[in-house]
Amino acid sequence: MKILILKLIRRRVVRYLISGxxxxxxxxxxxFILVDFFHIWYLLSAVVSxxxxxxxxxxxxxxxxxxxxxxxxxxxxxxLYFAFQLVNLYFNTFLMYVFVDLLDIQYLISQILIGIAMxxxxxxxxxxxxxxxxxxxxxxxxxxxxxxxxxxxxxxxxKNNHTLMRCTSCGLIFVHPMPEETSAIYNEKxxxxxxxxxxxxxxxxxxxxxxxxxxxxxxxxxxxxRKGKLLDVGCATGYFMDIAKKRGWEVGGVEISEHAAxxxxxxxxxxxxxxxxxxxxxxxxxxxxxxxxxxxxLRNPEQAMLKAKRLLKEGGIIVVSTPDAGSLWANLLGPxxxxxxxxxxxxLFGRKNFSTLLFRVGFSPVLITNIGKHFTMPYIFQTLFHWxxxxxxxxxAQITNRGVISKLKIPINFRDTFFMxxxxxxxK
Length: 428
Fold this sequence. Notes:
It is a single chain. This protein has 428 residues and is of the alpha/beta class. The protein folds into three domains: 2-130, no CATH class; 139-176, no CATH class; 183-372 and 413-424, 3-Layer(aba) Sandwich (Rossmann fold). The protein has helices at 2-9, 12-37, 42-65, 74-102, 107-130, 188-191, 202-206, 210-224, 239-246, 258-266, 301-311, 328-333, 351-361, 377-388, 391-399; strands at residues 139-140, 153-159, 162-167, 173-176, 229-233, 250-255, 271-273, 286-292, 312-323, 347-348, 363-369, 373-375, 410-412, 417-424. A seven-stranded mixed sheet has the order 7-6-5-8-9-14-11, sandwiched between helices. Strands 1-2-3-4-10 form a five-stranded antiparallel sheet, with no helix packed on it. Helix 9 links the parallel strand 5 and strand 6. The longest helix has 29 residues, at 74-102.
C-alpha cells in the first residue's frame, strides 16, 4: 500500500487532485460553517470561503503539485494565480446564483459541481501558464547513477547553490556536479556551534540518541550472533564507539575531521583521521563496519562499500543508517525536505536503490527497518535553521542552549530514515 501511494504521489495529476481536493474541502467547510453556524448570506459566504480556499490552493499547487520552489518567479505566479482566481470567483458566484436560485439545486451540491468543472480547466491553466516551466522535465544523460548505473536523470531541485539530480530508473538523488572537496565543512564549528551546518554541541546532542544506538548494537549482535571487532566510519568524537566499547565490543574509528578525531583520541579511542578509502587498515580484521548517518555525506559510497568489504571477516556485516529518499515524508516535501542540505548531504538513497548497490558490491541485506530517535531542543531548532535559513530559528537554538532545557529529550520520527544491516556474501 505504501509503495502504491508513493508511486501515485509522483504523478503530477494526482498531486494536483490532492491539492485541489484540499482547497475544495477548505472551501466547503468554510462555506458550511458560515452559512449553517453563523447564518451569513450564502453568496457572501461563498465569496469568503472561495478566497480562503484560493490561498490554500496556491500554496499547495506551487510547492506540492507542480513542485516549483523558485522564489524569483513567485510574484509573477501570485499575480497570475490571483487574477485567474478572480475570474473563477466571478464565474463561481454567477454559477452559484444560477444553480441555487434559478435551478433550485442545494447549495453544497451546486458548489461541488461547479468545483469539478473549474478543477478540469484550471489544471491546464496552471500547467501551461501560471506554473509553466520552459523545460520542466529536462533530462541529462551521460552521468552514471551510483546505484543502478542508469544514465538518464532529471533535475530534481536546487538548494544552497547546488543542483540536485534524480535518476529516472531508480530514484537516487545526488548533487551535480559533485564537489571535489567537502572536508572543510567538518571543522570545529561543525561539532560546536553549527553556524551553517552541524551541531550546537555534538556530544550533548547525541546523548538523547543513546537508546537508538543501544538498539543498533542489539540488532548487530543478533545478526552476528556475538560481539566482535567494530569499525565506525564517520565516528566524529567517538560517541557511538564509546557505547559499543562499554558493551564489550573492540572498537576502532575513521573520521574525516581532524578536530573530532583528536577529541576522540583524547578519550582513549583508536580513531584514524581521513576517509575510509585512504586509511591503511588490515584486511579481514573486522566483524562489523558501521556507517551511521554517514552514507549521505560520501562522494562515492560504492568505493566505501568495497573498502568495507575488504576489511570484513567472513560473515561480517555492514550497518547503515541514512535518510530515506523513498519515504512518504521525503516525497511529500521534495527538495524542501529538511534532510536535503547540500553540500553536507551529497547523495540520498531509498531502501530499494541502496539494496541494489549493496547486492552489486557483494552484500545481502538481512534487516531493513526504521528506528526513531530523541533530540535536544537546540538540535531541533538548529535543524530548522539549516533547513529554512531563518535566523529566528538560530536565535531560538541559542536561547534553548542553556540549563535544563538544553537537555530535554524530544522524540521525533517522521519515518524518513532507514536502518539496514547487510551481511558479506561469498565472492563470486
